[in-house]
Specification:
single chain; 243 residues; 2 domains; two-stranded antiparallel sheet; 65% helix
């Protein structure tokens, strides 16, 4: 899909509904393309429409007429089903955003580096706002699956990540660890150190997830948004001192 960034969006579906075949799309004028984009409230119609029209005029492969007619009916049927679904998802996301922004803990979670408007509500929903639920960070880490579990059999001992955990929470923390590397130098340094120790990409991110969970737990229990300066000072205070 070279014309639009995503297939699962209203502008793409309406365009495909208006011009369901390559022949119909090539025959469309710039004005017709503009009309479709205006239906969905595209912010830069006059800028985008000529580019789409120009792209459509480029040489492209075409299917047999029989195949085109067959797939045309299927495509229109799917578009008719997807349009209401896309609209409902958009309404659902809007309501999630409203509930998150009006929540007392929203500033805590949205202050996390890289959390954004999707990950921050996920973390709040998974952890909740009942501070009495957890008496220590270790309990939350066990629930999230970021804490290591010791396996022992005879003389064999090995620490591994637990499989029985709240997987949506573990995934949310994993995504936080992944995105935070792009914004927090210390997070990327920690990840690189784990990789240098021989840890795989996923294991290194899980280890970083556990660090973020400890930070988040402290933020959550003290009702304090994330502050890089406070974290840096705390990290310096707990750093090993040379003899």
């Amino acid at each position: 899909m070279q014309l639009f960034s995503q297939l699962q969006q209203r502008s793409t579906l309406l365009f495909l509904q208006a011009f369901p075949t390559s022949v119909a799309a090539k025959a469309a004028s710039v004005t017709q393309v503009e009309q479709v984009l205006k239906q969905v409230g595209h912010p830069t119609v006059r800028k985008v429409a000529p580019k789409i029209h120009e792209t459509l005029q480029q040489p492209s492969l075409s299917a047999h007429a029989i195949t085109t007619r067959t797939k045309l009916r299927l495509a229109l049927a799917l578009i008719a089903q997807l349009l209401p679904l896309v609209e409902q998802i958009a309404a659902y996301e809007k309501e999630i955003e409203r509930l998150f922004l009006t929540h007392a803990d929203s500033q805590i979670f949205e202050s996390l580096p890289g959390a954004g408007k999707r990950l921050a509500p996920r973390l709040l929903a998974e952890i909740g706002d009942d501070r009495s639920r957890y008496t220590a960070c270790q309990e939350l880490a066990a629930l999230a699956g970021t804490a290591l579990v010791l396996y022992q059999s005879g003389n064999y001992r090995k620490a591994h990540h637990r499989h029985a955990c709240l997987k949506p929470l573990r995934n949310a923390l994993y995504q936080l660890a992944r995105t935070s590397r792009q914004q927090e130098p210390w997070a990327d340094e920690y990840y690189q150190r784990k990789r240098a120790e021989g840890k795989s990409h996923s294991v290194a991110l899980l280890a970083l997830s556990n660090v973020w969970l400890r930070i988040l737990y402290r933020m959550w229990t003290t009702h304090t948004p994330y502050d890089p300066a406070i974290f840096a000072a705390s990290r310096q205070a707990h750093a090993p001192r040379a003899a």
